[in-house]
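In practice, a research group might receive sequence data for several interacting partners and want a quick structural hypothesis before committing to experiments. The following worked case mirrors that situation: the sequences arrive first, and a predicted assembly follows.
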Amino acid sequence: MNSNWPLWEVFIRSKNGLQHKHVGSLHAPDAKMALENARDVYTRRLEGNSIWVVPSNYITASDPQQNEEYFEPAESKIYRHPTFYELPDEVKHM
Amino acid sequence: MLKDQSPYFRFLVQLGDDALILSQRTSEWCGHGPVLEQDIALTNITLDILGQARLWYQLAVDQTQDFKDEDQLAYTRDSREMTNILLVEQPNGHWGMTVMRQYLYDTFKKMYYARLEESGQASISEIAHKCRVETTYHHQWSSEWVRRLALGTDEGNDKMQHALNTLWRYHQEITQDSEADIAMLNEGITVTPSMIREDYQQEIKTYLESCGLSIPDIRNEITGGRKGIHTEHLGYILAEMQYMQRAYPNLEW
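A structural hypothesis for the assembly, expressed as tokens:
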């Protein structure tokens, strides 16, 4: 039964104002049950107040083989980090 | 003895008993669900309902000197002293049977708790609120599964119709008033189960028919749970559930 059900990725927002974060995946026959399964599997301990589910096959992933050319060039560009600015107190969640 | 207790106490205990026995039944699915996600879903529901039993029992033991805590209520009473409705002690059967039993239970309890929530008694109202919110989700879960299984394949429809036929004679009891229910009308509780009967019957008829199921033409009701007259199944449930406290009284772990 399980093997026939497609895979879904689950994203949970832990608090208002924060972004949804990927927490895992599950099997479900359709979106409605995917949401319910996500609620039952991933929010049992008050992990969040909003759930997104996305069919896993809609996610296009980067190729680990390309990690070198994709990510290594950023390592030496420290000036891209906004650590040289003073953040006003009003700006939260940065 | 239960019959020596106040109607208020017995009212709370019967609410607790429905929840305790149903949760004991559904807990049998833990580790055996058809898929991992649903195993967890039903186990969550089981824990919600067990939690509800605790709350009703905790309030009940405040009304008497004869029981010290909720464990004593749960683990030391024999079947004649248990006042749960017969529906909740029926065997799980297959997944569809469990889902159907849950649907018949949730639909009623959701309506009932919503009315109980309006109770003039603050402590009852608070617990009823928690139960209503939890049951609203349980009802969403069980009604969804009834629909999916009954409208899925011919085999699914047959099995759900069989489940409905099997449970039908036990479901009316949930809408019957016990002596304790009626006595509570004088204690600021404004609802008894029979006040919800018509809405409940209409709701399940409309929904089950929309799921391609027919309402069974079975008139004979089997009742007696509220008076401690149970089906043979309850003895086995109690034997398993109470074994440790019977063998090792006051054991804690």
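Before designing any experiment, note the following. The mean pLDDT of chain B is 96. Chain B touches chain A at residues 34-38, 40-41, 44, 140-141, 144, 148 (CB under 8 Å).
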